[in-house]
Amino acid sequence: MNKQTKGVWCAILAAAFYALNAPLSKLLLGHVPPTMMAAFLYLGAGLGMAVMQLAENRTGFAAREQRLTRSELPYTIGMVVLDIAAPIALMVGITRTSAANASLLNNFEIVATSLIAMCLFREAISPKLWLGIALVTLSSAILSVRDVSSFSFSAGSVFVLIACVCWGFENNCTRMLSSKNPVQIVVIKGIFSGLGALVIALVTGESFPAAGQVLLALALGFVAYGLSIVFYIYAQRELGAAKTSAYYAIAPFIGVAMSLVIFREVPSLTFLIALAVMIAGTCVVTAADQG
Asked: Which of 10, 33, 57, 190 is deepest in the core (most CB within 10 A)?
């Protein structure tokens, strides 16, 4: 398997794990407050990866990976801060919109990541990729507008889009760390971002959920954030930030399918139009990457 193919498969695995996030978080948000939920998701990722790091140290596998140094500190801090803000915004958004809608809107992360990669890191964007970005943005706008006549926006959709912009910046910070040990990155990201969100949750007066709900949130975080981020970082090593996001774009569609089944939601005509536009945009983005 060549490096390009390995990167593609890592991005697909990352997408499949992350797709569990919106529908399963929606179920748990009935029992866990949104900021508290964001905290436990990242703590689950950090603690789970910490166990994996101990295993790596014992087997000697970690010695093959480069460790973070002081020179990466600005990107590490940026990654942690953005990973506090993004999941909180996403959880608030999920509480105010359907899981299917939130899942599909997650594809706006492609737009944010690609444009930030172009502006800050001079990654090239081809005409096909520009077309894909335009279609994804159009689909996101369709999903976000509640009333076309008055241009009122769905609060839930706006919060999801804010999360996507935060993760767009975070993806590019993580890209600058992608040559380092991905498990170490997720441990730092998960524990510090999780603790930051937990402090915010406690300060704002959110109630602590039952132990069983906490364990479920931690387990979901380990898979949907922990394992997903590790595979995402491996993909970025081979593909770069913009191209990894292109393949990662299948995550929302898996999430949409799961949401429609779990919640037995009947999609509206507007949602179906947005879905068709989003699929077209994703196909164009992927074709641009392969071209």
From this structure: 190
